[in-house]
Amino acid sequence: MRYKKSFGPLNQHINNQKDAPQRDTLNLNNIKMSPFLIAALLVFILVFFSTVKVVQEKSAKIVQRFGSFSRIMHPGINFCIPFVESIAGTVSLKVQQLDIHIETKTKDDVFVKLQVSVHVQIMKNRVREAFYELDDPYSQISSYIFNILLLFY
Question: Which residue, among 78, 49, 48, has the nearest Cα to 62 in the 3D structure?
Answer without folding.
Answer: 78
